[in-house]
User: Fold this.
Amino acid sequence: MSYGLYVGRNRTADGIAYLAGYGDEPSSHWLEIVPRRRHPDGATLRVGVTPEADMPGRLSDIPQVGETARHIRVSYSYYKGVPAPLTNGGLNEYGVAVRDIWSSSRPELVAMTPPDQTGPNYSDLARLVLERARTAREGVDLIAGLIARHGYSDYGGNSHIVADADEAWVVIEFAGGHGLWVAERLGADSIRASRPGYVGEVPIHDPVQDDFLYPPHFVDFAVEQGWYDAGQGGPFDANAIYGDGKGRWAGVQWIEAEMAARAARSQKIGMPDMLWAVRTPTLTGDTAGYGQVVPLGKPAHDALRVLWHTQAGAVAAPFVPVFMGMIEVPEEYRQHRYLTSGEASRFLDMRHAGRGDTVSMVPQGVESTRSASQACKRLLNLVFQHHEVFLPEVTALWEGVEDQLLASHRRIERSARILIEAGEAGLAADLLTYYGTTELRRALDLVEQVTQGLEIRTRFLFGFSVDPIPRCPPQIW
Assistant:
């Protein structure tokens, strides 16, 4: 399902835009810094879905570009049978960020989707934007071009928010196999949440508007299906005609109103407000596989771009800055066997090699470290069992940690910039890596220390409930 939130630069205290959100998949999640890569002439990449997917299709090969961009992303191992590894987005070296968010198409379009559909799936599109786009608009054009040339493999409809320092676009990809999509531009004054992604009224009668994009047959197809009466010339509501018809869901209305109220203050919206918007238990619970907040500024060097990350729902961990210039992420935050699809039938034992898919895909060295995902999930369950008592104090702790990180992050950023401008880019990379890995591991240490304390308090104050109905704070979605 997932959640995305964009705030334009005119609504923020520091004058930069932000893109934030989380992925809603229950399978394993891991953090990656993918280096820039060169590809030989004629190279291809495989995209799409298999006959085993919830909405089946065929894998196909599309041309690869000569060079793909360095980027930070969170990957995960399963969703509706779409081939892994999957991603909901992240940030690339050019300052383009993307979030993938579910967006249901109308039932008739879902029914039209051919069982042999081909073309990139939702994760392919997010990854390709990270690998290729230098601006948000390029990302939109890339998605549109890929759908036009290769088709689109869907699971019932989807959307993306693609953003850079100057603007963002909400892109809705509709089911049905007819190449239907629409994009709406968000600007400096925008506050926009997606869950699900939506685009409402599209000004199809205005020949000079440039805030909406769609394919040439976008209106004609609706007319042919009897979903829009061109003769009456009324408003063309994309969500009502091609989507779920529900417009802005309750959670979207709530968080947009909350952020608009914060933006109306003299101090406007700051980084702590963005972290709150991804952490608030009104929206964030066990379904949130991780959290991201991306400041869309224009740093002096690409290595200084940063993505703030939690390995599970942000109620159970502090956000930590991950710099583009880091060489690697700590093993604890890489892929582990915990909740990884297919690992229940595999072994870290070569005696089983050659007997089918029986050897684990996770390196033994990585699996021998702590799993940040598992540790955070354990804490989340401890907190939620007695959230009335534990959640306020744990949230206050994370906010205190993040206040310190915001201060140290600025000093590290300045130090790395000085090193880069002195011709010591390698030393800057070492500094950023040392800082990032140290703070990510420190966050994990804090999670485990808090967990130990809450386990003791739970055992002696409340006991451990065996009620099959889990507890959590009231949530809108």
About this structure: The chain has a mean pLDDT of 97. Residues 341 and 402 are 32 Å apart (CA to CA). The two ends are 10 Å apart (CA to CA). The first strand starts at residue 3 and ends at 7.
